[in-house]
Amino acid sequence: MSPIPTAGAPAKTIEFWFEFGSNYSYLSVMRIEDEAARRGVKVVWKPFLLGPIFRSFGWETSPFVLQKAKGDYVWRDMARLCRKYGLIWRQPSVFPRTAVLALRVALVGAEKPWMNEFCQRIMRLNFALDQDIGSEAAVKDVLRQLGLPADAVVAEAQSEANKLRLREQTEAAQARGIFGAPMFFVGDEMFWGNDRLDDALDFAAGSP
Amino acid sequence: MSPIPTAGAPAKTIEFWFEFGSNYSYLSVMRIEDEAARRGVKVVWKPFLLGPIFRSFGWETSPFVLQKAKGDYVWRDMARLCRKYGLIWRQPSVFPRTAVLALRVALVGAEKPWMNEFCQRIMRLNFALDQDIGSEAAVKDVLRQLGLPADAVVAEAQSEANKLRLREQTEAAQARGIFGAPMFFVGDEMFWGNDRLDDALDFAAGSP
Question: Top-level CATH class of A13-205?
Fold first, then answer.
């Protein structure tokens, strides 16, 4: 069993780097807080833009689009994994969806109590309901569902300072060697993909 | 529990497509027969050449070489996974190693009782001992360790008919949409990567 952190002890943490356009990030967004809580691990949410990182490899879009055989496989894999995890799945008719505003809002909300629910709702729009996540209307609608002041949150998200922060977070991702999403860090130990979420959390919890 | 196939019933089978140069194939070669036996599943070994498939994507070598950040990650990931599975790991000083003769021998041996042991020994040379697997001497040495007539097996492997069979098997891999290794098929259901070996075997065994 994972130890429950005692008051005053430094919390065991995992950094969760993710993108709303990334289908494997969907699986981790839906699972991570429950799985982390079971192990007494705190999640540090790190939204970033995958597009600039792909472009640094010379890719204009997702490798799942660039490589047709891999792309066909990924949708089959997603259907199976969602069934396994009990998640709703609908293959998005637009892929990858850009979600710059939603990522900026996620940066504003990263340490707020509504972060997990906001991210899950954006992900459900994209991968369970096949709906737009890029528009201001879509993002504000989710914020209102959470009882939040949508106009004020979006205004903060669209401030120059916050826009810059998202660019800087994306540059930090690249500097740390992040080449895809989701990516997990426990200290300097990097774990790639939803397939490594449990290993990363076990490592964070100090399990063998 | 997986049902034990009764005499006369069609065996539950999994196709295992692999390459000796592929590090994630190493993990599956070392694990598959034990894991399949536990579930009453028969393994159909399908050696093929990954090089022509990568070249069809315009890649002259492994994506782990072409993408440095991903490559750096893969070696760390391999070290962790080998520890988890109790396998010896040494990062190969030459990667990816070509192993055309060893793959031709594997094609000769695919339904022979020595197949599993031959493949495990070739994989250990590459990924546990960091030794050449491409030379005739290396392949014959492994065959002799198994008490096999090395000269006769290699002569059969190098026959024009067998060389053609490996090319045809590689073309069949491509026609089925195989884009990497290891790849598993249960009927038409395709599973990619050592990370899906257990799911693929459960599917083959008819488990939920």
Answer: alpha beta
What letters, b where the CB count within 10 A reaches 16 and e where it falls short, cover A28-47? Answer: bbbbbbebbeebbbebebbb
Contacts of B178 in chain A (CB under 8 A): 69
The residue of chain B with its CA nearest to that of A78 is B191
Q: Which option is the CATH number for B12-205: 3.40.30.10, 3.40.50.720, 2.40.160.60, 3.40.718.10?
A: 3.40.30.10
- B193 Ramachandran zone, left/alpha/beta (phi>0; psi -120 to 50): left
In the structure, how many helices (H) and strands (E) does chain A have? Answer: 10, 4
Residue pLDDT, tens place only, B147-179: 999 999 999 999 999 999 999 999 999 999 999
pLDDT tens digits, B89-98 = 999 999 999 9
A120 CB-contact burial (10 Å; exposed 0-12 / middle 13-18 / buried 19+): middle
Candidates A64, A65, A73, A174, partner chain B, best to mutate (most B CBs within 10 A) = A73
In the sheet that A12-18 helps form, which strands lie side by side, from edge to edge?
Answer: A41-47, A12-18, A183-186, A189-192
Reported ipTM: the value is 0.90
